[in-house]
Design goal:
Layout (H helix, E strand, L loop, with lengths): L1 H5 L4 H8 L5 E5 L5 H15 L7 E5 L2 H13 L6 E4 H16 L6 E2 L4 H11 L5 H16 L4 H10 L4 E2 L2 E2 H18 L1 E2 L1 H14 L1 H10 L2 E4 L7 H11 L5 E5 L14 H4 L1 H4 L4 E5 L1 E2 L4 H12 L13 E2 L8 E7 H17 L7 E5 L5 H10 L4 E3 L9 H16 L5 H10 L13 H23 L3 H14 L8 E5 H4 L4 E6 L15 H15 L2 E12 L42 H21 L3 H4 L2 H10 L4 H4 L7 H22 L1
Parallel strand pairs: 1-9, 1-10, 2-3, 2-8, 4-7, 8-9, 11-12, 13-18, 14-16, 14-17, 15-16, 17-18
Antiparallel strand pairs: 5-6
Helix pairs in contact: 2-3, 4-21, 5-10, 6-9, 8-9, 10-11, 10-12, 15-23, 16-17, 18-19, 18-21, 19-20, 24-26, 24-28
Length: 666
Amino acid sequence: MNDDLLSALDDDQRVVATNLNGPLCVLAGAGTGKTRAITYRIAHGVRSGVYTTQDLLAVTFTARAAGELRSRLRDLGAGAVQARTFHSAALRQLSFFWPQAIGGSVPRIQEHKAPIVAEAANRLGVGVDKLTIRDLAAEIEWAKVCMITADDYQRRAAAAGKEEAGGCDLATVSNVIRMYEEVKTERSVIDFEDVLLLMVGILAERDDVAAQVRRQYRHFVVDEYQDVSALQQRLLDLWLGGRQEICVVGDVSQTIYSFTGASPEHLSGFPRRYPDADVVRLVRDYRSTPQVVSLANRLLTSRTGRMSAGAVTLEAQRPSSVPVRYEAYDDDVAEAAGVAARVLELVEQGVPLREIAVLYRTNSQSEVVEDALSRAGVGYQLRGGERFFSRPEVKGAVVALRAASKVEPDGAMPDLVRSALSSVGWSQEPPAGRGAVRERWDSLNTLVQLADDLYARRGASLGDFRDELDDRAAAQNAPIADGVTLASVHAAKGLEWDAVFLIGLSDGLVPISMATTPEQVAEERRLLYVGVTRTREHLQLSFARARTAGGRGSRKHSRFLTGIWPEEEAAVRSPRPRSAEAGKDELDPADAELFEKLREWRAEEARRQSKPAYTILHDTTLRAIATSKPKNLRQLTLLRGIGATKLESYGPHLLATVAEWTAAAK
């Protein structure tokens, strides 16, 4: 049975899966199957009798990642193994040991720092607004995960290159941190970082508690080890108690959370702390095409010509495919429209919407893309928006599935799911158009698709599907919906799509202007690397020369792409002309001919309505039609100046004019 299990792995993954005793360090590049390797290692260890399901703890950094680990372990028959976040594991232990170590019950956890930060600032007479409170809360979190006290904050923050936080000088921030702790004590609450700090304190001071934890957990696996903070590393060391039964997995090139205290030093320095450790490199990239892999490798070496310590050079395993696209646009709106047009092209080529993502550096960049996709009639989902399992239709679906699972009638699980969800609004065919009705159907259909996937993977029953939903809801591990994903690169880490659009790749955004130190700029480069490596096949990199139409086109592509961006960059591509004043002479001869045909149509329409020609459609819009030559109403909506009213009034006539000219031109 184990031989069958291991036959699914490549040689390097098999080394990881069969090396069951620590210490083991796995340096795994993006797309190399690291999660596959460690879950198969755990399953192989359980089947071999080296581990029991009770004595191994797998930890990672997000509830979604922990949920994914549990799901994969269930697929491999090792679903009883503990897979948790650091916080979840620590809270479970804290709740169990608090009565004997401290007495009473664990204090209530304050989920959001903002109210207490605001109170602390007010007591000190520090004027704050919402943004300042947010920044101060983030700084408090950074200090705590780095185990920095208020008394030592100024020195340590200055050493880290910080000059202020939230517009406050370091001395003021130090006082806010001190007062924040006092307010928490008065209210008898703790925050999420306290969960780790308190458990660290108990394990360090109570030998009996530490011994009990170490008897329980004999083996540890840590995923995404490049994201570990000083506080998490301290907790891990106390769990281990000097033992070496630990396997860590990570990629220093994907360290993008230093603002939360993460440091790649724990991963890159692992062999120094454990001289007897085996180090395995996973370099075979099964996710991306050679074109994408080549770009990813060049990004990491383009500054110094060599990889940083612990980084791996990826080796593409997929066949060659389409080249990476590089696009420069006039402005942000033109960039969004160009992305929407390209999305439609990919859909026509057979790429599902759920396999397309638009990624950006800051969340504020999504608005213009949302507008362009809406105009094109393309569904999308904002990652980081409303939680999937909080939606009313999803809650209703879960209730319906619970009721159905109590009966467990005969039939294949996907059919039973469809039957249950039909009672809450799901239908075989989607409703026409977009809007709230379609969005509710999309949510329910996402559950149907998940049921199909689980049944195909492990023949899951209706009860198994219900348990999977419970686990996903607890971890907020939402299934992928049938729409284009819009997300920041930070939120996209750990995910992948067939097609990825990386937008806004201009200096000031990538790297972001706030990145001033060499370390901060290096992290911005890694952030772009993470964005690129989310792609399986179709990748487009783009930037806009100006923010608004007609604005000064002073933006340049990201410095990280110097030597990579093709020479054709100077030929700006845009779904519309560079400015409203651009004339017919700037069009290609064929496009200029179509432009004149459109002007003739507009003149006739203006005479018929006794209105000025420009009130029908502006020359800018006619030029855009002449250059893009839309074939249907959806493509026509991408162009500026074509709103719903004008689309209804003039759309068919415009398309007929374009079609007639195209036929004549052939």
